[in-house]
Amino acid sequence: MHNVCRTLPESTERSIQFVVEADESTYDDAPMALDLSAIRREFATLHTNVSGAPVVYLDSAATALTPDSVWEDMRAFEKNARSNVHRGMHVLAERATDAYEAARDTVRTFVGAKHSQEIIFTKNTTEAINLVAHTFGETLEAGDTVLVSELEHHSAIVPWQQLAERKGIVVEWIGTDDNGNVRMDEYEQFLETRRVRLVMITAQSNVLGSRPPLKSMIQKAHTAGAVVLVDAAQFAAHHQVDVQAMDCDFLVFSGHKVYGPTGVGVLFGKRKLLEDMPPFLGGGSMIRTVTKEGFTPADIPQKFEAGTPPITQVIGLASAINWQAQFSWEEREAHERELLAHARKGLATIEGLTLLGTADASGCVSFTVDGVHPHDLTDVIGKQGICLRAGHHCAQPLHARLGVPATARLSVGIYNTTEDIDRCRERITNAVNLLRK
Amino acid sequence: MERLWRAVSFLWYFLCLADKESTYNTAIVDLYAENILAHSKNPHHRGALVDATVTHEEINHACGDTVTLSLTIADGNITAIGWEGNGCAISQAGMSILSEELVGMPVDKALSLRKEDIFALLGVPVGTRRTKCALLCLHTLKNTLRSAAGKPAQSWLDTVEIEGE
Ligand SMILES: Cc1ncc(COP(=O)(O)O)c(C=O)c1O
């Protein structure tokens, strides 16, 4: 059962119960179809009108919508327990601290980590990657190599280029083929011939929807003595994360792409690594002692959480995770596979439209249309309430590799329907007729 | 009393929404108005210019749109123009429409053009998201003329935010 406690107990005796483990036994049955109309009722944004009709939201890869119950949980927290965490002895501070730490444990379960201390809250994926670049990265020496794949988002590229400027490390690119498959031969060669210390790899491309073979890449990296940082910003919304099975050293994602609020992200790091890394930002909460002569850092995870964290957003993220636990991954994935197959089939009928990536891609499908700039296309259909993203999707090196300056991207979430896709395809067809040279 | 106030603010909220709604509707027709689409499909003065006095390229990094502008300048006047580019309908139509105005224009006058002049020329409501698309032509013109005068290029901020304030 999905039984997140929405109303906080008024009684001071009971601690707040935000986190309720999903009852596994209810999910043992074979995958059933999702009840889409019930799901859609929970997302207020889906009922917003643009140009007289409800929006068709096909931009979940940029940010997913958030169910109303998550806002309610955040509001309940603000009303009944708002105070700072780890900084007070009063009742509200205790409620807030308990809820915040319970949320950490919810995230631990969500990614399959062993210890809740391995979960660090950040602002987003970008900050989480920068955290690693500024801490683990500081232990690298001039000439050490960081491998970055061509599939990466700018937030998984630039922090390493900045580190190269600061420390003289070398950034090398793992190439891809036209379909977004990582060139394993290149990868292995780098591992054999360079002093590779870290591999930066996405678990799912935000443009092509392809998924690199993480398990074998991680194994190979470990054999070569390198650690692996997995960008799960897209992946975490479409597939179960299991950091122990994957054996990754670091993994990052954003709350807002997994149906949670903006303003919160997660870094998972293996305990031993996190303990050995220097702290990131300095300030309150991240210290054990401060004297006029200096400071000693706190233990993990506080060591990496300087200052007042985004408490309400963390509560919201846990709520979003609990909300989605009522659906099995099997049924979610089957639903999204159907949506994307429908999208690829429908889009392919539009003259001059080229689909990127392969049919087994997850989460999104990107495309170009001859003679029509993606910005014009998404602007025209956007004003008719169809929300698609266009541009380089913060992946310029990948677009350069594919030889296209910009693409349009249709991405799906749990709440989308094949009717959404049909309306979108219809509008695209009309817009193309209007715009085509 | 509070209820009344709530009812009033509720109504007000919906009125505002309805208002927004209608601007959305007009914007859709207008941004891709006939003249914009016509210029984007059949751009004027497009092509290389032989014996150009100056040639300069600008990029809108936000979306990768480019315009390369060539001008022939004689006696302080722009006497011929040619341009090439790649990008969305708004950026390319913008350059086409502006190019019509530039032939025969004194350099001083071209230098004094402001973003409001471009918006007036386009004659369509340009939203925040498309401002840089619409102003790529102006930005390129300014820096082409600055290049001709041996001056360093001005930044996008100068073109989009500062000028005309
Ligand atoms: C693969 C990937 N990595 C990183 C990010 C950055 O996420 P955020 O903007 O939340 O930091 C995104 C989202 O745009 C993404 O798709």
Question: What does the model show?
Answer:
The complex is a heterodimer of chains A (437) and B (165). In chain A, a hairpin with a 4-residue loop joins strand 11 (287-290) and strand 12 (295-297). In chain A, 37% of the residues lie in helices and 16% in strands. With 437 residues, chain A is of the alpha/beta class. Chain A folds into two domains: 99-324, 3-Layer(aba) Sandwich (Aspartate Aminotransferase, domain 2), CATH 3.40.640; 329-435, Alpha-Beta Complex (Aspartate Aminotransferase, domain 1). Mean pLDDT of chain A is 92; it is low at 1-30. A seven-stranded mixed sheet of chain A has the order 4-10-9-8-7-5-6, with helices on both faces. In chain A, strands 13-14-17-16 form a four-stranded antiparallel sheet, covered by helices on one side. Chain A has a two-stranded antiparallel sheet with strand order 1-2. By secondary structure, chain B is an alpha+beta fold. Chain B has one domain (2-160): Sufe protein. Chain: A (Alpha-Beta Complex), CATH 3.90.1010. Helices cover 55% and strands 16% of the residues of chain B. Chain B has seven helices and three strands, in the order H-H-E-E-E-H-H-H-H-H. Chain B has a three-stranded antiparallel sheet. In chain B, helix 3 (89-102) packs across helix 6. The termini of chain B are far apart. At the A-B interface, strand 1 and helix 12 of A face helix 1 and helix 2 of B. Bound molecules: pyridoxal-5'-phosphate (PLP). Residues 124-126, 153, 155-156, 202, 206, 231, 233-234, 254, 394 of chain A line the site of pyridoxal-5'-phosphate. Pyridoxal-5'-phosphate (PLP) is lined by residues 124-126, 153, 155-156, 202, 206, 231, 233-234, 254, 394 of chain A.
